[in-house]
Design goal:
Layout (H helix, E strand, L loop, with lengths): L1 E5 L3 E4 L4 E4 L1 H11 L3 E9 L2 H12 L7 E4 L5 E7 L5 E6 L11 H9 L4 E4 L7 H13 L4 E5 L9 H10 L2 E5 H6 L8 E5 L5 E5 L2 E5 L12 H15 L3 H16 L16
Parallel strand pairs: 1-4, 1-8, 2-6, 4-5, 8-9, 9-10, 10-11
Antiparallel strand pairs: 2-3, 6-7, 11-12, 12-13
Helix pairs in contact: 1-7, 7-8
Length: 274
Amino acid sequence: MTILSIGEILWDVFPDTVRLGGAPFNFAVHAHRLGHRVIFLSAVGDDERGRAALERAAALGLPAEFIQVAAGQPTGSVSVRLDREGQPDFTIHRPAAYDCLTLDEDQLQRLADLRPDWVYFGTLYPMEVRAREVLRRLLDAVPEARRFYDVNLRRGCYTQELVRELLSLADAVKLNGDEAQRFPGLGEAPSLAVTRGERGCAVRIGNDRAECPGYPVKVVDTVGAGDAFAAAFLHGLAAGWSAAKTGDFANRLGALVASRAGALPEWSLRELGL
């Protein structure tokens, strides 16, 4: 399966460390680890953090062809505070280089020639008008690709109108329980996953529905756990699994990531039973 993942790449700045992240980037890495061809589209600054991000992305197996360098713009960053339960609070710093991604006609044709099966996007990146236009142009260039929308709301970085617009584009949607309450009537998407933390998730794939219990783990931090869940959810969709099997698999990977530090801890397919 070929996946295009578009959006933010940024540094998660914790009180004691700095780690590369961003939901579309984390998703891309986890999907790559699950065996899929993933093309990541974003931009970094022409700065030390940007150069480090490109090196890290390459080390994690993501090609740099569509990770651009935006001159004069800082590489994205977000300040992260964790509460006692490992739940994060994010302060996102913008403008950032990822807001400046551009796709010309030759690049769009190159992406179309890859014949992607899915395009992944979230809410943070298309909050900017020019970024939203880039996303629209990408979707128009690959009309046969299905669309995966990870709602993933961040304080001050969404509007009701934007979320509803993005929902209208999606073939599959992943969101958490709080987001589901804010946006009732999500049943229109052909596939849907609602995460509930330690209580697991609810999954619907067409008419197949399942409530999937979570996996109890000692949480280190939950940063990136939802992105890992999203990658596993899409993996199950692509494999044609049932809602129950897909939800269980996604819960397993999400719990595994939450039990380790950072959004991109090392894990193996063997740990997931694959």
